[in-house]
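Shall we go through a protein fold together, starting from nothing but its sequence? Please make up or recall a protein chain and show it to me in full. Go ahead whenever you are ready, and we will take it from there.
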Amino acid sequence: MEIDKQIGLSHLFLTDRKCRVCGDVKNLIGDFYRTRKDRGAVASSYSYECKECTIQRIKDSKKMNLPYLMWEYPDW
């Protein structure tokens, strides 16, 4: 048996990371988005904001950009 095939890159690196927004410690590979596609599974390839916080941030920023929320009758 070759031990190289049994141990992947995910075993060599940190697999938990603390989200900088919510502060929860979550699984690096499953709960964070990858930001760099060209590298392997290194810890620096993943964002510091978890998926749930990223989705909430995008939702909140899109709500502010809707034109009908800030609409006022034109002052002619």
